[in-house]
Design a protein that fits this description.
The complex is a heterodimer of chains A (158) and B (154). Chain A is mainly alpha-helical. Chain A has two domains: 92 residues, no CATH class; 43 residues, no CATH class. In chain A, 63% of the residues lie in helices and 11% in strands. Chain A is built from four helices and three strands, in the order ααααβββ. A two-stranded antiparallel ribbon of chain A has the order 2-3. In chain A, β2 and β3 form a beta hairpin. The longest helix of chain A has 59 residues. The relative contact order of chain A is 0.05. Chain B has one domain. Chain B has two helices and eight strands. A four-stranded antiparallel sheet of chain B has the order 2-1-8-7, with no helix packed on it. In chain B, strands 3-4-5-6 form a four-stranded antiparallel sheet, with no helix packed on it. Chain B is globular, with a radius of gyration of 21 Å. The chains are: A mainly alpha (158), B alpha+beta (154). β1 of chain A pairs antiparallel with β6 of chain B, so a sheet runs across the interface.
């Protein structure tokens, strides 16, 4: 095994990618090559050093990350509360509309003109008094089955 | 499951609205101390032979009482009036009718009626009728025929 091949296998070993059956061959080369052995030692030490460094950086950043997560969580909660509030408003918003509709129906129904046809139940009418300043007035009574009529005669026109 | 929950929420207002409408329908439309005055303005003439279906059962009465061949409802107005309260009804031809319920007993209704044509007083009368009863006032000329008012009170 030459040093170039050994270096590739050293890197693969440090990454955990070296096949088990090739480990013996690499160990044999390292035993006889001080340069490659030194390279292997240096590369093998790099991983733990990087992990230690990452841990240190994580510890340094932990308070900032905690603060950021707190803000994110508060933002999520605030959004949920806003949605909940608007949902509550939407759920009850129909009540004033329904009340307004009912009031409008009560107020305006009696003034409507599109109603059922006339079905009077009685033509029993007492005319207590009748007079006119400008016309002759006649009271027409053709019996209980027919309505009483007050007929206004203006200048003998009708 | 969110879907059925939403459907339930949306259904509640609909059920409540229905309940509200039922309650409104159950409430008597006129209180005992109010009178609903209903005034229909009918144009009677000899132009054509049609009789407005909106006149209901009064159509046959009109035909047997008058010699006109055509009856058409021009307008119909209804006011709920308390005793002593005067309601004004605009009539075709710039005429107006003022109705005032007077104190009455039982199912009787007493109405003071005044019909005027501008400053001219065409008719002043006091009528006593049963709730649901009707009286006719006719005669004022209108176009090629006359105006007949169907006045009922409930």
């Amino acid at each position: 095994m030459d040093c170039g091949t050994a270096l590739g296998k050293i890197i693969a070993k440090s990454d955990g990618l070296l096949p088990r059956e090739e480990e013996a061959g690499l160990a044999g080369h390292l035993a006889g090559c001080p340069a490659c052995a030194a390279e292997d030692a240096a590369i093998s030490a790099t991983g733990p050093a990087l992990r230690a460094l990452t841990g240190i950086r994580a510890m340094e950043k932990a308070p900032a990350l905690d603060a950021m997560w707190t803000r994110v969580r508060a933002g999520i909660e605030e959004g949920r509360e806003t949605r909940r509030r608007s949902s509550r408003i939407a759920r009850w918003a129909w009540i004033p509309a329904a009340v307004a509709l009912a009031v409008a129906a009560v107020l305006f129904y009696p003034a409507g003109t599109d109603r059922s046809p006339f079905h009077p139940n009685s033509f029993d009418v007492a005319v207590e008094d009748v007079e006119s300043d400008v016309a002759t007035v006649a009271l027409v009574d053709k019996g209980e089955d027919l309505p009483k009529v007050i007929w206004i005669i203006e200048d003998a026109k009708t | 499951m969110p879907r059925p929950k939403l459907r339930g929420r949306a259904g509640a207002p609909a059920y409540c609205s229905l309940l509200l409408l039922l309650l409104l329908a159950a409430v008597p439309s006129e209180a005992a101390d109010t009178v609903a005055v209903d005034v229909g303005a009918v144009y009677a003439s000899n132009e054509g032979t049609s009789i407005d279906p909106a006149l209901g059962t009064i159509r046959g009465k009109l035909r047997s009482m008058f010699n006109y061949t055509s009856y058409r409802m021009l307008d119909r107005k209804r006011r709920s009036l308390s005793v002593g309260e005067t309601g004004e009804f605009e009539l075709p031809g710039r005429r107006t009718m003022r109705a005032t319920p007077l104190p009455a007993q039982g199912d009787k209704v007493r109405l003071s009626i005044q019909i005027s044509d501008g400053p001219r007083n065409l008719l002043t009368t006091t009528l006593g009728l049963r709730r649901g009863g009707m009286v006719l006032v006719g005669g004022p000329p209108h176009e090629a025929g006359v105006l007949i008012l169907l006045i009922s009170a409930e």
